[in-house]
User: Fold these one by one.
Assistant:
Number 1:
Amino acid sequence: MLTIMDRFKMDVFSANRNYNKVRKCITAGYFTHAAKKDPTEGYKTMVEGTIVYIHPSSALFNKSPEWLIYHELVLTTKEYMRNIMTIEPKWLVELAPKFYRQGDPKMMTRAKRMEKLEPLYDRFNPPNSWRLSKRIG
């Protein structure tokens, strides 16, 4: 990370022990890689709605946090998330306002009201649908 910042002549600042600053920075870069705990099994990615699981070698394997950001998906016997960290869902709205917004409680089912996030415009689905289409490219 320091090499990249040096290459682009960016100032380096310390977050000291404020790990939330670092987590927010990573969330800002990987907001499309968000996943929410699914009540039936594993996690669902926010963009594609794919069922994924925490990799067994992860420190968060038995923790089952509600919201995650992952770096990559690995397909073995199941599709696993690797290099993950927990996030606060409000960060998605705060850091990617053109991609996420607070859900309108009047337009959602009870289950969706509990999730509290709603992706923005999706030209491939009806205006009030929850899922985004698959990303291209």
Note: Confidence is low (pLDDT under 50) at residues 131-137.
Number 2:
Amino acid sequence: MEVLVVGGAGYIGSQMCKYLSQNGYKPIVLDNLVCGHRESVKWGPFIEGSMDNRELLTQLFKKYEIHAVMHFAAYAYVGDSVTDPGKYYYNNVAATISLLDTMRKNHIFNFIFSSTCATYGEPIQTPITENHPQSPINPYGRSKLMVEQILDDFLDAYGFNSVILRYFNAAGADPDGEIGEDHRPETHLIPLILQTALGQREMINIFGSDYSTYDGTCIRDYIHINDLAQAHLLALEKLLNGSIGGKYNLGNGDGHSVKEVIDMARKVTGKKIPEKITKRRPGDPAILIGSSYKAIEELGWEPKFADLYTIIETAWKWHKDNPYGYHSQ
């Protein structure tokens, strides 16, 4: 069965393609390579292009017997969304509408959407459940929430069925070491720590040490990309079996502080990893932990790489073998 993976050359999208292939599906990758890497496309055909190209999409839908579409093609830098919101509203919202409309015209009504905990904004309770109010505090989070609302309207008007998966902090790398995390610029904590371990950075900055947490640093919920891929496959099978979609948080339900992640990376790598305390970043909540109870109960999701050591260990294998990312290959 063929599945179109938009953004399938990216960090999570490429892992999804491998997971689909391992489970008997054929991923068709559409990616404009603005953020993705051609080297990460190893399962199924690759088409270079963007999701707002209706003519190209129509050709793909005629060429392949696509049963569902998975969307991993959003811009996802919070700071960048604040300085250039137009870029985010065009790609994350307008281009996604173009994709959805082209799907509808070609009678494809199953859609898996990568959303984010950023749609919740400042948490008023933790762990965050799917019923938590959605009040995003930046254009990135707002763009994702807009698409969620559009999908609700498409269901009501067109019978367009979707599953919305709200990620917390995606982390780790392919357990086999074939593909991994290579963002430019890199903003995620674990790869920044591992770049420091490799000597590519002088030290890792800790943004604030006076939060109301057990060691004063921010606490986040880290989820392995292979576990994310498993949840997406379960969501896909839910739709293909004729069930109505839904909205699910994806996290481990257990948070780790910045200092705890650095200490664990020292244990995994055997490196000293210098650190520096600096001032807080605006808008950083002290604690972000998600409840995934609903995904476990309704989708049958069973995270297999939940412990922090394993998450960092898989990431370290990738970064050590590919110190310059895909440019090392």
Note: The domain at 189-221+253-328 is CATH 3.90.25.10 (UDP-galactose 4-epimerase; domain 1).
Number 3:
Amino acid sequence: MRGACRRIWAVGAVVTALAIGSAFAQEQAPAKPNVVILATGGTIAGAQPKPGEIGYKAGAFPVDALVQAVPGMKGLATVTGEQIASIGSQDMNDAVWIRLARRVNELQARPDVTGIVITHGTDTMEETGYFLDLVVKGDKPVVLVGSMRPATAISADGPMNLYNATAVAVDPAAKGRGVLVVLNDDIHFARETTKTNTTALQTFGSPNRGLAGIVLFGKPRFYSPPVPKHTSGSIFAGTVPDALPKVFIVYAYANVGREQVEAALAAGAQGIVLAGVGDGNASASMIEALSAAAKKGVVVVRSSRVGSGTVARNVELDDDQLGFVAALELNPQKARVLLQQVLVRTKDVLAVQKFFEEY
């Protein structure tokens, strides 16, 4: 009897020791970071009608399918997904922007969330990214990611891009760098990047200030931090209006007239961005129409269709006399995004110019 008791005690001691050891191991194991993926559609979720066909339908796959297609994702983080929209980014609009921004800000405020990844089509990714860069309140990483090949394509680039974007979102060094864009092993600042090729995998470039960093096989390496104001340092952070002011882009070319300007005014434009030739110029007829609009209280911003460089104030044109704002480094589509935010606050030309110098 006494021997049986000893055996029972020994077994109990072993079980207790194993339980304590298991609990200790669980306490010692670091908790995985939590990443929320907000899906909006795009090529990364696209499906071809038949294998090998060039055409495809954007946003065909839900976010859960995208996550399941990425081997090793569970090793990076605990990932949850939410479907914000299922559209090609050519159909991106203010309503989706507002919904997306508000959800990002809610996630920024949650202590259990480490980072946020947004799947997005490449066509207007730079605009969505810059919009979020202005209005997101918080320093947690926000990373936009897409692909140039649909999910059903041979050698689809989406899974690796999504893996790398998630790796960036959980990297402590990504905090406080503003909204980022990850494609093809490159990390870009949303403010700086632009799409430069219609179909190439290496389509995104940051022509003026360069890359934010690189990410190879899930290992990010960051370069210099951003200079312009962004996210928590932005005056717009945390304020997402119910609607955005109407801002149109007019495009300059040889022999251009005033018709685009007149159409924008007829449509109720509160602001107009000039995608000008060279250093933000246009024909005498278009400049005359834009100056007349400026004198009526429409804010006119001069940018360039060239793709890189700076449109400086009072260099190509006399902005003081004409009543214009110079976009500096911002291309037309990003100048439009900033102007929409600024017009909620002011229409004073010099005050608007100050925003373009700081953001």
Note: The first strand starts at residue 34 and ends at 41.
